[in-house]
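Anyone able to model this chain together with FHN?
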Amino acid sequence: MLVKLHGLASFRLGIIESMFSVLCAAAAMASTPTIQAKHLPKDERIAWWREARFGMFIHWGLYAVPAGEWNGKPVGGIGEWIMNRGQIKYDDYEKLRQDFNPYKYDADEWVRIAKDAGMKYIVITSKHHDGFALWDSPVSDYDVATTKYRKDLLKPLADACREHGIKLGFYHSILDWRHNDFGTRPPWDPRPEQGPTNMPRYVEFMKAQLRELLGGDYGDVAMVWFDGEWDQAWTHEMGIDMYDFCLDLNPSTLVNNRVDKGRQGMAGMNRDGDYRGDYGTPEQEIPAKGFPAGVDWESCMTMNDTWGFKKNDHNWKSADTLIENLSDIASKGGNFLLNVGPTAEGLIPAPSVARLKTMGDWIDVHGAAIYGTTATPFEFSPFKWTKRPGKLYLHMHDYQGGRVEVKGIKSRISRVNLMSAGGRPLSWDQGSDTLVFELPEEAPNDYVTVVSISYKGDLNIEEPGLVQAADGEVDLPAIRGTAHGGSVKPEHDWFGFWTGTQDYVSWEFDVKAPGEFVIEAKIAVAPGNGGLVEFSVGDQSVAFTARSTGDWREFKKVFPGTILVERSGKKTLTVRAKKIDGALMNLRRVRLLPKA
Ligand code: FHN
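re: yes, here you go
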């Protein structure tokens, strides 16, 4: 029976806690025979996760109390990093426990909000970098039991998740700014009086806390979302050992790739090598393209600019952007882990709740195009696509009513219908390699419009090269172009980060019917940016000034001018920057329209 030493004087617990945690860990090891449980194969463990596609991230802890301010002054950066960005010493930071009292916390309400949003799992910070534990941990006195609130915050959430059929995972930080043994002392609080660090002992402390979390008190924990692995004190060997340790504790759990040292920055995927982790973790970004089947990944994002609550961060992404992100991520075969940062009182901020409600309304109608789908079968389509056997889902982010042409579907199509408007069937025709259907002039629903295309037999896609269409038009989407130069890169489905006049983009295409063409371009430019652009085909060129369209995602059509293509054959369209103010533009597509 481990007795927890409550009420220790509030002097540094470093030495005592380290010894305490070693004693507890040793006791736990002694009392729990080492179980070499057979790890279930990853495909078996991750099947539910691939189906789920959408989860809630929750960053919650002492940092919600200051909420981005310290001593009355704003502290920059993400809210949960206030101890670091504010250079706050432990002696001062730990006093937040006296004010941490989430008396409005209602775990059932939180789970309902996630479930109604269409989220299938929740990942909550059990311990973030500040070292504070959201449950009553027998091996630590730096936890919720020593706050004004005192009660375990994770247990009610685990119970509510089980009741509502939502999977629960824990975000658990490897990096620890407070624990005396962690191998890197916070530079702003070096604590030389605490003696040397002791990483082996810290790893045992981590394991003791993970036994508490994965040992059964919180149900069948669906995943451990490690973070902070970048610290020099954490090694590849520790990562391998920790991955195996988690699966020994719970053979069906998932462990992300931040348990080990393979992650390549915010792009989130492992570099080549023998690195552990069941899935990659892009952060605040969406990969430009998907990955081969079997490579699992999840983009985690904030709804504003912070993970932990900040009272003055009102930079909320629109519901439109959040739904587009969900659609974009699913079209590339990934999961979307969308964050909420609850307040110190225990409330999910109202702007987050409102956006999640809107997402839920959209998913109620379009869930079949997200859950359990796999990535687009197209490499160059201007649309986003998801698929499942017998179904293709065309996701239209920028609604354009009227005629839609889809090239390259060889499978026999049996039905084309909107997913909104009650599943309204659309009139369609399938030629040798082109599906044509008509969309209503007015968008049938708010946000992303999805067209469901049913087909018979196996899926057979043969995408054509870039050729002039029968009506003479040449359609050049960014994802079929080539970026030349470091800063111009296909981000999402447009060329972005265009900051150097040495950078340019180009397309190669075939022309059968030469002549004069009107150039149409779809661009987005934030205020204060833009510049002089040159469109050229052969020795013909057209100059154009790119000006603000309102924001980097506010795409608008512009018509730089007309250009003569004198002869048929293979052509190259080049778009160069002659002068750039800040960043030039985001370029989604260029079309050459035969001049009437
Ligand atoms: O440092 C953390 C940060 O606080 C937050 O938890 C994000 C979300 O995954 N991860 C790290 C920053 O990359």
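The chain has three domains: 14-366, 384-456, 474-594.
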